[in-house]
Amino acid sequence: MNTLVVDASVWVSAADSTDPMSGMSRAFLSGVVARELPIALPEFAQLEIACALARRLRDAEQGRGLTERMLGSPLVTTHSLSRAKLREAVQVGTSRFLRAGDALYVALAEGLGGGVVTWDERLINRARALTPRDWLERHSPG
């Protein structure tokens, strides 16, 4: 199975038990881990996730700690942003009218032949990303 690129929205939701999608985000990540599927992230994702969690939880240390623990899995690989990858993201982002960070996730997924999993409606509509719920439904046994 191909590498998954998991958008920050899923990580943040999983880490915040007050988020309405937290349970589904956790179930998705547990399913990925159980299947030992590789997860790829653009290098900036650590910054995006940590800042989002710190803002949401109003606790900088907790935001950083949760991010380090989640992304510390041996299944998670981060990819640095080279000039070539930046050009690919510019092409993807401008052609699909994406936000800059979203373009990096999509370009990485396309470069790896994988898919994006997100709660972001723009990515779902403009880049054929899947929600964690949709991914689980498509990959459940039976």
Structure overview:
This protein has 142 residues and is an alpha/beta fold. It has 8 helices and 4 strands, in the order βααβααβααβαα. The chain is 61% helix and 10% strand. A 4-stranded parallel beta sheet has the order 3-2-1-4. Helix 1 crosses helix 2 and helix 1 (8-15) packs parallel to helix 3 (45-57). It is globular, with a radius of gyration of 14 Å. The two termini are 17 Å apart. The relative contact order is 0.20.
The biggest sheet, with number of strands, parallel, antiparallel or mixed sense and barrel status, is:
4 strands, parallel
- Order the strands across the largest sheet as they lie in space: 3-2-1-4
What structural class results from the helix and strand content? alpha/beta
Number of strands: 4
- Which consecutive residue ranges, at least 5 long each, have pLDDT under 50? none
N/C terminus separation: 17 Å
Helical fraction equals: 55-70%
Beta-strand content bin: 5-15%
Number of domains: 1
pLDDT averaged over residues: 95
Number of helices: 8
How would you concisely characterize the structure shown here?
By secondary structure, this protein is of the alpha/beta class. The chain has helices spanning 8-15, 22-34, 45-57, 60-71, 83-96, 100-112, 121-127, 132-138; strands at 4-6, 39-42, 76-79, 115-117. The two termini are 17 Å apart.
